[in-house]
Design goal:
Blueprint: E1 11-15, E2 20-21, H1 26-29, E3 47-51, E4 54-60, H2 65-72, H3 80-91, E5 103-109, E6 114-119, E7 128-132, E8 135-139, H4 142-148, H5 157-166, E9 179-181, E10 186-191, E11 194-199, H6 213-231, E12 238-241, H7 246-255, E13 263-268, H8 278-288, E14 291-296, H9 302-313, H10 322-334, E15 339-341, H11 346-349, H12 356-362, H13 366-374, H14 385-400, H15 403-412, H16 425-434, H17 447-462, H18 465-475, E16 479-481, H19 487-493, H20 509-514, H21 521-525, H22 533-541, H23 543-552, H24 566-574, H25 585-606
Parallel strand pairs: 12-13, 12-15, 13-14, 15-16
Antiparallel strand pairs: 1-2, 1-8, 3-4, 4-5, 5-6, 6-10, 7-8, 7-9, 10-11
Helix pairs in contact: 2-3, 5-16, 5-25, 6-7, 6-19, 7-8, 9-25, 12-13, 12-14, 13-14, 22-25
Length: 607
């Protein structure tokens, strides 16, 4: 990995026997030699601030800075890091309640010999730690953290089992044993007396807003507009990755008036009309008065993309979508952009609260649950009895029962029921014993709120989505920003009535109402959307790529064979991949991808 990718990362060490040591330039402080000296260590990039004895470094972007300055009586032009340092000197960790992200920060009061590490509320930036005796090493990227350590940690077998099954990992766990993510809304207290992990933010249930639908739509529009304004880049520095879907269209429409010079880039598929959305993107760009660049996507190599990503970040590529996104980012950079906006988070932020049906059943309102099931998002205008029954069973009754009943039933069933047949018994047991798919039921509030709150916070972090989106942009030389993943917007969405986005035909109905008059009517009325899963499937199943996958997963040599039965993998997955549309074709692509990228990671780990 080239050193310039580390230029905006934080890194350092806290020693229980001494100070938190940090320097200003990672590239100078960590040459090819041993970084373990008594001299200053790197805390590079980002912005720096100091107030009295409190020193703060920030990676990422801090929102609500104006309110923080006002609360401290500081001048409006005070640098953000200086304001955070002053806040920490006055309030300690309570300063975290005055800011939002995406950010990762370290604060240290040399006189008091105390400090903290913290992530923003939604995990827009991450902090990774590794404890080695009295020393705690930290960095905002796993790849940076590994450079600080004397030796590369062994694979974490639990995390690797999760990666192979569905790429998620248990909260805070990483593929390297002993490396942990601090976590969204988390902070780590540092002092000579010890360390303690705490939370400065977590979603809290409050009763839904009760207002006419028109007022709810207006409130959502205001929240979306404010989020776009906070993410909008400076003049002539931004690009939006624009598809024909609603999420990126919302970002483009609301960011354009607030980001002069913003341009749009869109993927073109000349030979696949069912995927090509450039005509829809052009409608949105024309309405928003954005210059639009269409980028042809030709014969991508997903394995090459996975190798490049792994070499840069020392982690597997979560999904092959980067083969479409990387050319768009490259085109944006070639046009002069330094910031890339996207519509990430729209599925969760603008989507429905599915489990309100379960809450109706828990209150004994069976008829109300049945009526909601007939309106279940995407079920269609005339749902069959079988479809309604499936929703009532899978979402209603399963959502309503207590989590301890799930545990009891799961404990009595064979472990193989919950993992693919090709996963070896040891990893299967590790996965099943630690997986808790209904953990969200332990959150405060009704089922609809708990499931939505978990999806908007811990769910995205477990799947490594926020870090992936940022890293893909960084590989292309840009800063990635996702305006829909905004704290104030998320907190507003968690107050919406759960029925507000229930529609059997139209997705995101409240957002469509909120954007009426801003987005073209044709875009707001559109019901279909291109499904790129088939494109990724065909890319992975192409003879040249599949041949490389078969060679990569040779049972005689592949290290992943310690975790999966490669003979069965070849028989079930690689010998005869199902065509798009056949039973199991989506699962085939996901499983093949996870096993192949797991092997690539193991090889890089052993190198």
């Amino acid at each position: 990995m080239t050193a310039d990718l580390f230029a905006s990362e934080l890194a350092g060490v806290h020693d229980l026997r001494g100070d938190l040591r940090a320097g200003d330039d990672l590239r100078r402080a960590l040459p090819d030699g041993d970084p373990h000296t008594d001299g200053p260590l790197a805390l590079s990039g980002g912005s720096a601030g100091a107030a009295a004895d409190a020193r703060v470094r920030v990676a990422g972007r801090i929102d609500r800075a104006a309110g923080l300055r006002a609360a401290l009586g500081l001048a409006p032009a005070t640098p953000v890091a200086d304001a955070v340092a002053a806040g920490y000197a006055r309030w300690g960790a309570a300063v975290l309640g005055h800011v939002s992200g995406p950010f990762a920060l370290v604060a240290w009061d040399r006189a008091a010999q105390r400090g903290l590490l913290a992530q923003d509320q939604l995990g827009g930036r991450s902090l990774f730690t590794f404890e080695d005796g009295p020393r705690l090493w930290f960095a905002t990227e796993v790849a940076v953290l590994l450079r600080l350590l004397r030796r590369r940690p062994e694979p974490d077998e639990v995390a690797l089992a999760y990666h192979l099954v569905d790429h998620s990992v248990p909260d805070g766990r990483m593929l390297y044993r002993g490396v942990h993510r601090l976590g969204a809304g988390g902070w780590l207290e540092l002092s000579g007396a010890g360390r303690a992990t705490r939370r400065h933010w977590a979603p809290r249930y409050a009763p839904p807003l009760r207002a006419p639908r028109s007022e709810l739509a207006a409130g959502l529009r205001d929240a979306l507009t404010a989020a776009a304004a906070r993410a909008a880049p400076a003049a002539d520095t931004g690009a939006v990755l624009l598809s024909g879907g609603l999420d990126s269209s919302v970002v483009a429409a609301l960011a354009a008036p607030r980001a002069p010079g913003l341009r749009a880039v869109s993927a073109a598929f000349p030979g696949e009309r069912e995927l090509d959305e450039t005509a829809w993107a052009a409608i949105v760009a024309d309405r928003a008065r954005l210059a639009l660049t269409s980028v042809p996507i030709d014969s991508p190599d997903p394995l090459a993309a996975a190798e490049a990503y792994g070499a840069a970040w020392a982690l597997p590529l979560p999904a092959p979508g980067i083969v479409i996104e990387a050319p768009l980012i490259a085109a944006a950079r070639a046009a002069g952009a330094t910031v890339a906006l996207d519509g990430q988070g729209g599925d969760e932020v603008l989507g429905p609260a599915y489990f309100v049906i379960a809450d109706r059943l828990r209150r004994g309102r069976v008829l109300a649950a049945y009526r909601l099931a007939r309106r279940y998002p995407g079920i269609g205008p005339e749902p069959s009895r079988a479809a309604v029954r499936l929703v009532l069973t899978g979402v209603g009754f399963r959502g309503a029962i207590a989590p301890r009943l799930h545990e009891r039933v799961r404990g009595r069933r064979p472990a193989g029921r919950y993992a693919p047949g090709w996963l070896r018994p040891g990893p299967t047991r590790l996965f099943v014993d630690s997986e808790d798919p209904w953990r969200w039921k332990r959150l405060d509030g009704p089922r609809w709120w708990a499931a939505l709150a978990d999806t908007l916070t811990r769910g995205r972090e477990r799947a490594d989505i926020a870090d992936y989106v940022r890293r893909r942009a960084r590989l292309g030389g840009l800063e990635g920003r996702s305006p829909l993943l905004d704290l104030d917007l998320v907190e507003f969405v968690l107050r919406l009535p759960p029925e507000a986005n229930y529609d059997p035909v139209i997705s995101r109905p409240l957002a469509r109402e909120a954007l009426r008059g801003t987005l073209p009517d044709a875009v707001l009325a559109r019901r279909d959307k291109s499904d790129f899963a088939g494109f990724y499937h065909r890319s992975l199943a192409a003879e040249a790529t599949l041949g490389r996958v078969r060679e990569l997963l040779d049972p005689r040599r592949a290290g992943v064979g310690a975790y999966v039965d490669l003979i069965q993998v070849h028989r079930d997955l690689l010998d005869r991949p199902p065509p798009v549309g056949a039973p199991g074709w989506r699962a085939w692509a996901v499983q093949t991808w996870n096993i192949a990228t797991g092997e690539l990671w193991l090889r890089s780990h052993a190198a």
